[in-house]
Please model this.
Amino acid sequence: MVTFFPNGKYVLSANEGEPVEKYESDPAGSVSIIEVGYSSPADSVCTTLTFSESDSEKSKDGVPVRTHDYLGNFETDYSFDKDIESEYIAVDGTSQYAYVSSQENHAVAKIDIERKKILTLKSLGYKDYSQCGVDFVEDGKINIVSEPYYGLYMPDSLTTFEVDGKTYIATANEGDDRGETSNLSIRISEFLRTIA
Model:
């Protein structure tokens, strides 16, 4: 996703870095801050930020940023930054911070735009369906009931808004996955063939 800064000074890009199906290639997820050259586009300066494990922060209920580190058993060049998939990006009302959703990691990053720095990549934690209810049955009817399950928020698009001078983030929680079941089974079968 590409977002224009309110005053036109920057263009921000969330670079998802989604892997191919069999994980033969998995680019690092990142965020680019492009300082626009007013006299000429050629004068624009791009700074690309990648994520490290030190950026990650657990949720209030102690849930870490969701990674797929089991892929390290099958990927010789596995790394934390390749596992992060930046998806949507929004700027707050002060034009000081950008917020970036990483759906597959059930996390949101906070970026200091002027300093060009990742401040945190925070896990959103679990959603307790025994408290809020859910409709798991695909029968064309709405029947929201409490269930003894937990889910992940997995934010897709997001936006910011302010109330009484405080910034809030609203996210659309798609609940998509990375297709781990099929991909992991493919990688495990390849691994087993290798060691057999």
